[in-house]
Amino acid sequence: MVAETNELLRRACKNTIVVPGFNIPYLPMLEPIVQALRDSDAFGLIMVARLEWMKFEAPSLEAVAEEYHRVKDERCTRLHLDHVPVIDEDNLRMEYLPVIRSAIAAGYQSVMIDGSRLPLADNIAATRQAVELTHAAGVAVEGELGAVMGHEDGPVPSYEEIFASGKGFTDPAEAQRFVRQTGVDWLSVAVGSIHGAISKTLKDKKKVEARLNIPHLQRISEVVNIPMVLHGGTGIGRRYILDAVQHGCVKINIGTALRQPFEKIRGTSVVKAQQVVYDTALSLLRDELNIIGSARIIKA
After folding, report:
1. Residue 300 forms part of a structural domain
2. What's the start-to-end Cα distance of the chain, in Å?
3. Is residue 126 domain-resident?
4. Are 13 and 251 in contact (CB under 8 A)?
5. What is the 8-class DSSP label of residue 196?
6. Which are the contacts of 242, defined by CB distance < 8 A and separation ≥ 6?
7. The dihedral formed by the CA atoms of 47, 59, 134 and 80, expressed in degrees to the nearest 10
8. Is residue 161 part of a domain?
9. What are the φ and ψ backbone dihedral angles of 22, each rounded to 5 degrees?
10. How far is 297 from 164, CA to CA, in rounded Å?
11. 200: how many CB neighbours lie within 10 A of its CB?
12. Are strands 77-85 and 249-254 parallel, antiparallel or unpaired?
């Protein structure tokens, strides 16, 4: 069974159009993001990750799905389950297949299995299990290989040290093996981006302005031949994003850019905070990603 969302991302990749994936750590953020996509006729994914109902205030994957189905516009949106970890941010092993089954039952059209904290062979085995489950239901699958930093508690190397050393970057040969042996539809890669911090001491801080190692990305692209994904999209320079799209990256995850403005205002007025989310999303779609009207092209 062919997953429709996978076909849409393949069309975006063919046309070098970026597809933003917007994370929903707070349920009131969902409707203004859908409205911004609708008003700009841009295509994007509405997403929630396990950490957003564990460490923020997204009530559950079912609650996010219910709100999505209330306000969705399928001309320009699809629903994606982000980061179902095999080993989570606190280094705890978790039962990931039941979460994926719940997402399929709730109407998610694509899911991400994150085995990136595992050795390669174990990551392949866990991801292949998820692929077998989801493909049988017509649901697309994203896997991850490499270490996109940012979610860890405690001290981490400076960004410049990470970038210069290539620490955690996805290995092209391993990526080729991973894609071939798992059958994933999309591959999340580590080439310089970083996640927004989730620890209490760092989550309000401005993110580092990240760069991407485009030659390294090109080497991965040449051997995997599937759409690639960048996590930690907030803070990546516009020229790097545009270069990445030219080299096979199609999905860009965005969380911090919308979460932090919402958090600053929501204590005063949720309605005003929603307006800030709408305005920020619209600006991202128009000025940073330049994808006004992309829904018509992708779905043509």
Report:
1. no
2. 21
3. yes
4. no
5. P
6. 290
7. -10
8. yes
9. -100, 120
10. 38
11. 9
12. unpaired
Give the pair of three-digit tokens for residue 205.
Answer: 């801080």
What is the pLDDT tens value at each position of the chain, 300 positions in all? Answer: 456 999 999 999 999 999 999 999 999 999 999 999 999 999 999 999 999 999 899 999 999 999 999 999 999 999 999 999 999 888 889 999 999 999 999 999 999 999 999 999 999 999 999 999 999 999 999 999 997 765 555 556 676 777 666 678 999 999 999 999 999 999 999 998 776 554 454 455 565 678 899 999 999 999 999 999 999 888 888 889 999 999 999 999 999 999 999 999 999 999 999 999 999 999 999 999 999 999 999 986
Residue 162: give its domain's CATH number: 3.20.20.70
Q: What are the Cα distances from residue 184, in Å, to 48, 225, 228?
A: 19, 11, 11
Number of domains the chain contains: 1
DSSP E strand boundaries for the chain: 19-23, 44-49, 77-85, 110-114, 140-145, 186-189, 228-230, 249-254
Cβ-based neighbours of 96, under 8 Å, separated by 6 or more: 84, 85, 86, 113, 126, 130
Nearest to 21, CA basis, from 37, 40, 38? 37
Q: Is residue 48 part of a domain?
A: yes
User: Where do we find the tokens 């709730």?
Assistant: 106
Residue 120 contacts by C-beta under 8 Å, 6 or more apart in sequence? 145, 174, 177, 178
Has 90 been annotated as catalytic?
A: no
Q: Are 84 and 100 in contact (CB under 8 A)?
A: yes
Catalytic residue among 41, 82, 90, 185: 82
Q: What is the pTM of this model?
A: 0.91
Residue 95 sits in which domain range?
Answer: 4-295
Tokens standing for residue 181: 């042996």
